Amino acid sequence: MLLSAHTLTAQTVLFDPAEIYIGTTHGINSSMVMFNPSVEQTTSPLSGYTGGITFRYITEKHVGLQAEINYVQRGWSEKSGYKRQTNYIELPFLTHIYLGNTHRVIFNLGPKFGYLLNESVLANDSTSNAPAEEQIQKIHFPFDYGITTGLGYNLHTKKAGVFELEFRAYYGLSDIFANTKSDYFSTSNYLNFTVKGGWYFQLTGKK
User: Phi and psi at residue 5, in whole multiples of 5°?
Assistant: First the structure.
């Protein structure tokens, strides 16, 4: 038992001081809403901007923590010509896993929480005399939460900081419209895909 504990301790490489980074990311967010009953949406999800500030804290080899505050444009686009954009402030709290040193493959996973700032109709080209249910309803639940995961690449330089490219997916666990038995939609949750680039400045730790 003592030998096993010693082996486990030897395999865990702790950083002293920890690697601490702060940076900014910017990219394109593509989103749709998973409606039930279903709504016929375009094959190309609605595109919008996403960007924010990231704090990364790594205390041991291959594993760290990451917290972010982001502004993101979401929504959905229907084949009828209707498009709605919803703008959120988001707070992801992620486990950060990486392989490599100068060149790092990264994997992020964790919960994400959001709050609706505002919403707007981008287009309403529908020829129907009676607007669909989702077109007349306002967002009922301003709070949003779900699971996000990302796969990316980091390039660590000695003087210019850390450059990053990441692909992310997000699945909402909350609905945007009321979902009681008397409401029209039983589910209405987000599905998002993001491509973004980032730049980080390393505050502490071995470079």
Answer: -65, -40
- CA-based end-to-end distance of the chain: 36
Positive/negative CA dihedral, 22, 147, 110, 138: positive
DSSP output for 158-179: SSS-EEEEEEEEEEESS-SS--
Per-residue confidence in pLDDT tens, the chain, 207 aa: 444 444 444 456 677 789 999 999 999 999 999 999 999 999 999 999 999 999 999 999 999 999 999 999 999 999 999 999 999 999 999 999 999 999 999 999 999 999 999 999 999 986 666 789 999 999 999 999 999 999 999 999 989 999 999 999 999 999 999 999 999 999 999 999 999 999 999 999 876
Burial category of 125 from C-beta neighbours within 10 Å (exposed 0-12, middle 13-18, buried 19 and up): exposed
Query: How far from the centroid of its chain's Cα atoms is residue 147's Cα?
Result: 8
Burial of 136 (0-12, 13-18, 19+ CB in 10 A): exposed
Nearest CA among 18, 65, 24 for reference residue 204: 18
Q: Which helix (H) or strand (E) holds 183?
A: none
Tokens (6 digits) for 22:
């702060």
